[in-house]
Write a structure and sequence with these properties.
By secondary structure, this protein is an alpha+beta fold. The protein folds into three domains: 9-132, 3-Layer(aba) Sandwich (Rossmann fold); 142-158 and 228-354, ATP-grasp fold, B domain (D-amino Acid Aminotransferase, Chain A, domain 1, 2-Layer Sandwich); 163-225, Dna Ligase, domain 1, CATH 3.30.1490. It has helices at 22-35, 120-128, 137-144, 146-155, 174-181, 204-214, 259-264, 279-295, 330-337, 342-361, and strands at residues 9-16, 41-48, 54-57, 63-64, 73-74, 80-83, 91-94, 100-103, 106-110, 163-167, 185-189, 199-201, 220-225, 230-238, 243-244, 248-252, 269-272, 300-308, 314-320. It has a seven-stranded mixed sheet with strand order 8-7-6-3-2-1-9, with helices on both faces. Strands 14, 15, 16, 17, 18 and 19 form a six-stranded antiparallel sheet that branches. The longest helix is centred in the C-terminal third of the chain and has 20 residues, at 342-361.
């Protein structure tokens, strides 16, 4: 990576967050921090607790129970509470003493779910004048909302499964749902990831429990057709000219690829990397991944998930604009299988963030 800034690049790792995916973010952050080249980067840790408060964390003790994904916790003891102001250019201000304590050159928001992957923090970083890793405001927002994602993909002629959108107090009749999208089907919060709040429904009795669970996490939920097929995932990297990794396959040992299978149960799923696919199918998956990435106005990185049926039909399941970076996460593993190491991947993401920021600085803000 060509360092365009004098000295070490000060990277603000923003993690935690006011989201049900808080613990996943902590795991991802630890792996990214461990992989960062300390000769290239000065690491500034910004931990966000579950109430949304920002803290400047000590790298030596920023997590508690870090070896247990169920008990892992942010350690904010003796940490300064900090904030960012518009056009601060990366200067962090303490909320109590109201003085600058640290500054960052580029932000790496390793945040999953609402308030981190949905365009909210991306807008804040943009207002503060800080380059940041990942999709911008628009790409983050549409990628987070599964309904908007599906409508945009459908309008672009990209194949997706059948779906219905429902809100509280407007629950359709179960038999009408089955007539529209079949049985079984999935119930999901529209704005959540990591399989949080997701249920597979096989009967009318399970339906009530499933929608109650999904509505705990969002005011809008999706009912999605069950598509019998292989679960194939592909990583994308880039801004204007993105490239795709080799595809990988999730072989779940659970009824579906649940939160437990992803992050708790070490034997919850097998990852086949690269996936055993024909050369033609690999090309189609990679082309489809880049097409989805561009259609949804993404930048930096994303992981695109597919179903591939026995008839070799390809259906887009969803996109993840800030995929997990844990040791068992598909996004970095797919790039590793494509010849890009974990450390080089992080270098590329930081470089892409700075390149985008510099190109945006060239845009005029005054009209004459």
């Amino acid at each position: 990576m060509k360092n365009k800034l004098p000295g070490k690049i000060k990277v603000g790792i923003i993690f935690g967050g006011k989201s049900a995916e808080h613990e996943v973010s902590l795991q991802s952050a630890k792996n990214v921090i461990d992989a960062l080249d300390k000769n290239k980067y000065e690491i500034v840790l910004i931990g966000i607790d579950k109430t949304g408060k920002w803290f400047l964390n000590d790298e030596s003790q920023f997590l508690l129970n870090m070896g247990d994904p169920q008990l892992i916790k942010l350690n904010n003891e003796n940490s300064d509470e900090v904030t960012l102001a518009p056009e601060s250019k990366g200067t962090l201000i303490t909320k109590i003493k109201e003085k600058s304590v640290k500054s960052i050159d580029v932000a790496f928001p390793i945040l999953h779910g609402p308030f981190g992957e949905d365009g909210t923090i991306q807008g804040m970083l943009k207002l503060a004048g800080i380059p940041f890793v990942g999709a911008g405001v628009l790409g983050s927002a549409v990628g987070m909302d599964k309904e908007v994602t599906k409508r945009l993909l459908r309008d672009a002629g990209i194949k997706i499964g059948k779906f219905l959108t429902i809100r509280e107090n407007h629950i359709p009749d179960f038999n009408n749902i089955v007539q529209d999208i079949g049985l079984p089907f999935f119930v999901k919060p529209a704005n959540m990831g990591s399989s949080v709040g997701i249920s597979k429904v096989n009967s009318e009795e399970e339906f009530s429990t499933a929608i109650e669970e999904a509505f705990k996490y969002d005011r809008k939920i999706l009912l999605e057709e069950f598509i019998k097929g292989r679960e194939i995932e592909c990583s994308v990297l880039g801004n204007e000219n993105p490239v795709a990794s080799v595809p990988g396959e999730i072989i779940s040992n659970h009824d579906f690829y649940s939160y437990e299978a992803k992050y708790i149960d070490e034997n919850g799923a097998a990852l086949e990397i690269p996936a055993k696919l024909s050369g033609e199918m690999i090309y189609k998956i990679q082309e489809a991944s880049i097409n989805v990435f561009k259609t949804l106005e993404c930048e930096g990185l994303a992981r695109v998930d597919f179903f591939v049926t026995n008839e070799n039909e390809i259906y887009v399941n969803e996109i993840n604009t800030m995929p997990g970076f844990t040791k068992i996460s598909m996004y970095p593993k797919l790039w590793e299988a494509s010849g890009v190491t974990y450390s080089d991947l992080i270098d590329n993401l930081i470089e892409l963030a700075i390149e985008r920021y510099e190109s945006e600085l060239r845009l005029k803000t005054t009209f004459k």
